[in-house]
Amino acid sequence: MIIVHYEVYVLEGRGWMLHARFPRSERDTAIAEAKELEQTLKIKVKVIRETYYPDDNSFEEAEVYISGGTRPEPLKSKGAAAPAAVAAAAGRRGTGKPAPGPAARPPPARRRKAPGSDDTAKLRQILIRLMGICALSLSLSMLALKATPEVIVLLWKMGFSITVSPDGYNQLLIVVFFLTFLMTAVPLGMKFIPRQAQVPVFHKPNLSWGRAAARQTAVKESLDKLAAEAMRSPPAEEPAPPPAEAPPIEAPPIEAPPVEVPSAGPVPDEMPLPPDSALPAFEADVDTAVGQTERALAPAVSRYSEGALDYCRANRIEMDAYNRFALHLYLAGAVEALGELRMLGGAGRRRLLAQSLERLGTRGETAESFHDKLPDYLREPRYQSVAQAGRDAMSNFLRGDEDGAHLGLRDVFVQWNRKSGEAKPQMMTVLFTDMVGSTDMTQARGDAAAQEIVRRHNLIVRGALSRFGGKEVKHTGDGIMASFLSAAGAIDAVILMQSQVSEHNRRMPDQELHLRIGLNAGEPIQEEDDLFGSTVQLAARVCAATNTDEILCTASVVALSGRPQAGFRPVGAKHMKGFKDAIPLFEIPWR
After folding, report:
1. Range of the structural domain that residue 32 is part of
2. Per-residue model confidence as pLDDT tens digits over 204-226
3. Which residue, 13, 195, 417, 454, has most beta carbons within 10 Å?
4. Can you tell me whether residue 451 is helix, strand or coil?
């Protein structure tokens, strides 16, 4: 019996590599596969017809197809046996003709090779390609992780309102990592992993790859030989009708060992593994990426620290040991926020904090000791509030507001230096008014006409304040900041303000005035007839988020007003600059 296969080879850097093997009946399929590889991947291919002679365990090869055209075969096509092999087979069937020995066959193109060696080469080639694809995909995924924060900051600078919680940010990074990995690995795998490659199956755990493949090939060839012998045997002259119940046909015993189904278990000890040099140095890549991230963040930390020091100098904040410790906490909170955002480990944050504290004259082991004791410091609410102020300032700094990032530092030191015997802040309602389009009004009507409208605004607002017990804190140029001890009095005052402004516009359409008013309630810091703190900042942010001729307030004003919530119209939660979570807002109807 003669066994014929068609093998598809591709030309790579190391020479011709086996791509796939097809049986004798699939000659056209093998040629079609080779042509598809040639057209798709633009590489050279060839198809070899391999003929196996079991008599002397030798092979004969002939080229069926090669890139650039089809070459004639020295043997007959469609897997026909060589003349000498046909004669040998005829001799074995007893035709009376002498069967020539192996020397009668044409000697050229004979070679011996170990069965299963091609399968081992194919598997090794697939593993190397898989490792290369995985290494490239992991590298691109790490680059995508590094670029994600930069893209978020860029979108924010372009005007997109982006606010992401820490948990949402971590989930976003995970999604970006896996999407980048899949979008890289899947197309590369579809392009470079053979679709019809035959991977060898390892049947016995204690056998090497080559021995297992050889046993599988031997079993297959034995079965093919038995089938061919059965087809050659002449039929009987008058076949007898089959009995009612034909006995089962027992196949003759096969000398080759049976194929065992592989069971899920540990990897065989003798199974050769790919060399260590072929594995991607992932840990080294991660260390390199972390070092690059730390070096990229160092300039930002330096600018942030210098900005905090410049602000302290400009406001004449004395840097004694007490205030210096507060500034240490402020910078530590900023570095921790930056490290969390850029996924920097504890060692990297420690080095960045040491670099930041070096600007204050704290160096070496003292700076590292401060970082190690930071978790203990943050258990104290007073210390934690200073560190949180640093985190909020870093958030504004990364959004591009480097000049205004440290505006809250003055309130931090005011609260930090407050004596324990001083009275606690008092609950009050803070409001801001803002004249809409004041700058355009000045350019359109001139300074004199614009100033007349400002006087009308001041008259209306101050009259409402005096009527309902409000106190003017300061004039902001485009509006007035005021405070009320009663939230209900503040609501009545702003309703009166908008009503009188509407009446003014009806009587004097040539001097139209439009206001937006924002309110917030809390415990602001009182110092030198001025108010500071997050309560004041949020009231200003609410005013900025208000539309023309509208009054908005926070939920704290609604709760302290003593009025039913049905009298307020919810407008949803809005993200305010400098505040981590979205703030629910309510409209106060006045028409």
Report:
1. 3-113
2. 444 444 444 555 565 556 556 65
3. 454
4. helix
